[in-house]
Amino acid sequence: MDITSDTHSQHISRQFNHELEELKTHLMAMGGMVEKQVQDAVFALLESDSRLAEKVRDNDRQVNDLQLQIDDECTRILARRQPAASDLRLVLAVIRATSDLERIGDEASKIARNALSLSESSNTIRGLVEVRHISEHVRKMLRDSLTAFARFDTELAMQVVREDEFVDSEYGSAMRSLMTFMMEDSRSITSVLSIMWVLRALERVGDHANNLAEHVVYLVKGLDIRHTDPETLDQQAAPKKS
Amino acid sequence: MLASRHVDQATQAPVTHFPADQCCLEIDQFSLAYAGKPALQRLTLQVPRHRVTAFIGPSGCGKSTFLRAINRLHDLNESVSHSGEISLEGHNIHAPEMNVTELRRRVGMVFQTPNPFPMSIYENVAFGLRLQKRLAKRQRDDIIEWALTSAALWDEVKDRLHRSAWQLSGGQQQRLVIARTLAVQPDVLLLDEPASALDPISTLKIEELIRNLKSQLTLVLVTHNMQQAARVSDYTAFLQQGELVEYGPTDHVFTNPRLQRTENYITGRMA
């Protein structure tokens, strides 16, 4: 049975409604913060803004703190409420989602560190076009997966899952062209390697956004689609006949 | 996939139909009414052998009525009428040739409040045995030890078998009642809120006992405590207003119920 975004506010215990709503609100706040971190990290890199890069690096602690706080709330709900069915799935999905968001925060921090080291380089930086291109896709994936979470929208979540395959293939071709740059000009190796790390971090952000989308499908439909091959996914995500 | 052990891989539907050799009780379109007022409406389900099946639902939904019907405890109540069929191991329990005493030996029942007889621990367990057949004392002693051991009570009472059963704690009394039922070697044990009058530790002992007894017989449990149903049962049936709303593997019912009514009940939502 599919659930909707207001499913968790209909308990006889209003306190329980409140706790679950708070959990969702905090997860969305963490999602918003992480989304901003990725956006700022990429902007800092593209615009050589080292102050912004430092800010991203420092803000990672706040993301980590939010993860601890949300995990704490989940532990409390599990211990005190012993949730079942969709309530249980919400708590599990939130625990999994915070773990992915925290990792996305780490990747943003990595991008910021590379932005700082690249800002000190005097050479022309190759590969920024690829970074811009892939970052746009990845940021859209992240935004969509968070929207899917907020709206309990499995169709949007499945779009994110499909988008991840595209990002993976874009990442592969970007890496090939960056290797060509390195072979052409050995002086660029240091900076191109940094860009490769950035692309790698962005690709990982895409993977985590993909995980977030999978958690949405689990939350709404009770289907665990992790480690499922892409062909069967579409069939499972199709709306059930009533 | 979720709860794949109990899910048909082809259709993803929970499995609640069992081949004849795995089915202990088969309920087919069973309805029951008190003075014309329906209490159970066309219940149809199969209870698998050597498994724990829990019945949950709000007060007055018909859980206990159903449990008592399996034991034909309504027989003496003239205002009760019923239709449909309940079969135990393929035999209709309401068939004219069915011996009610034998049915009740094969289908034991334990109630909410422990009800030991006003006699010694030993005599309590021996009571059903004495009614059933004459046994040499040695043989009877063996069965009593076995029944008390099966009910996880032997170690606590072996030195005071001839003391009054009323000296036991509530939890011990409930296990004594289970031992009394087990002594006549039933096929099915019906438990009507067996732990609702007990403290948490005694409750856990009863739950552990239920789990251990599975290898010997089929258990049907009625409980208000949903966490208890989730902890001990293999299959869960949700009744509401005398109707079977949802029946499925417990893993499935408690993580991803099929119907909104079930979801609302087990998660404490307003109907």
TrEMBL record, chain A:
Extract the InterPro entries matched here.
Answer: PhoU, PhoU-like_sf, PhoU_dom
Top-rank taxon: Bacteria
Q: Which PANTHER family match?
A: PHOSPHATE-SPECIFIC TRANSPORT SYSTEM ACCESSORY PROTEIN PHOU
The function of this protein is: Plays a role in the regulation of phosphate uptake.
Q: Which residues form a coiled coil?
A: none
- Subunit structure of this chain's protein: Homodimer.
The family annotation for this protein states:
Belongs to the PhoU family.
Residue ranges occupied by any PhoU domain in the UniProt entry:
28-114, 131-216
Q: Which Pfam families match?
A: PhoU
Source organism (scientific name): Vreelandella subterranea
Q: Which UniProt keywords apply?
A: Cytoplasm, Phosphate transport, Transport
Q: What GO terms describe the biological role, i.e. biological process, of this protein?
A: intracellular phosphate ion homeostasis; negative regulation of phosphate metabolic process; phosphate ion transport
What is the designated name of this protein? Answer: Phosphate-specific transport system accessory protein PhoU
Q: Where in the cell is it found?
A: Cytoplasm
Is the Transport keyword given for this protein?
yes
UniProtKB/TrEMBL annotation, chain B:
Cellular component aspect of the GO annotation = membrane
One short Pfam name that applies is ABC_tran
* Protein source organism: Vreelandella subterranea
Keywords on this record? ATP-binding, Cell inner membrane, Cell membrane, Membrane, Nucleotide-binding, Phosphate transport, Translocase, Transport
Q: Which PANTHER family match?
A: ABC TRANSPORTER I FAMILY MEMBER 17, IRON EXPORT ATP-BINDING PROTEIN FETA-RELATED
Q: Which GO terms describe its biological process?
A: phosphate ion transmembrane transport
Q: Which GO terms describe its molecular function?
A: ATP binding; ATP hydrolysis activity; phosphate transmembrane transporter activity
- All copies of the ABC transporter domain together span 25-266
Kindly give the NCBIfam families that the UniProt entry links to this protein.
Answer: 3a0107s01c2
Kindly provide the name given to this protein in its UniProt entry.
Phosphate ABC transporter ATP-binding protein, PhoT family
Q: Which InterPro entries match?
A: AAA+_ATPase, ABC_transporter-like_ATP-bd, ABC_transporter-like_CS, P-loop_NTPase, PstB-like
